[in-house]
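Figure 2 data, in text form.
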Amino acid sequence: MTKNITVVGVGALGSHVVQFLRSEDVAIRAIDFDRVEQKNVYSQFHSKPGVGKKKVASLAQSMQMLFGAKIKTISHKLSKDNQDALLGGDLVIDCLDNATSRSLVQEWVRKHNVPCLHGALAPDGSFGRVVWDENFAIDSEGEPGSATCESGEFLPFIAITSAYLARAAQEFFLDNRRVGYEVSPSGATKT
């Protein structure tokens, strides 16, 4: 039976998670309001022809063209007013990069008792986390001008962390296990 996954945020982590889940028996809904910028091409699963397009449209086009995979796209910014309409499914995967939006996801999944995986990256590429909602505490955001993942320098690490997010979703759908991961450049440990 096909499961429904909602991926919120299809930037560095989310775009790769969608790519890694393409062979699963899942229907993917991708939510993101942002547009692809040139700098995104270095660290996200977006291509140069996608620059200027909505991230969800660019991702859907790449998924269809490269893999014949279809995803449902929602190009709206998540807000208190639309969270009931946008969120849902058998699993929500939070790949957002800001505390305000993460709080909206966390509030909604807890209220509706929907399983949720959160993915997080340190901006300097030193660690990544795959955490189930019941164990997830939202971090404060970094200072403006702090390091980011956008130069492409951390692309392999971003992809590895995204692969662990996808693996945690696989394990959940296989036998309802909620496995998380602490990921570092030297390896990963289950949590």
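Caption note: Residues 155-175 form the longest helix (21 residues).
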